[in-house]
Write a structure and sequence with these properties.
90 residues; globular; 3 strands; 1 helix; alpha+beta; 3-stranded antiparallel β-sheet
Length: 90
């Protein structure tokens, strides 16, 4: 049995002309992770952790699975806290 990771990333809604986009709260992301764990009784959860990653919602990034996430000097960057569940399939 190998160890598998599943990431729960906060969703970012697009804003409109007079409304800015909204990011899911950490509690909403945690609720999604807990629901997924409850709905999959065949898995054995090994660890749950929070991970902070930069710029995962940028168009040239692959989200939490991107192997090269970066930020530079004085430019603006956005950091996101995600929930990562490590588990084994029973």
């Amino acid at each position: 049995m190998s160890l598998i990771a599943k990431d729960f990333v906060p969703e970012k809604t697009k804003g409109g002309m007079f409304k800015s986009g909204k990011m899911q709260t950490f509690q909403e992301v945690l609720d999604l992770a807990n629901a997924w764990i409850s709905e999959n009784p065949q898995i054995k959860v090994v660890n749950v952790e929070t991970v902070v990653l930069p710029n995962i919602h940028e168009k040239d990034e692959d989200g939490s699975t991107d192997t090269e996430l970066w930020t530079a000097g004085e430019s603006s960057s956005h950091w996101y806290q995600i929930v990562r569940v490590w588990y084994k399939d029973a």
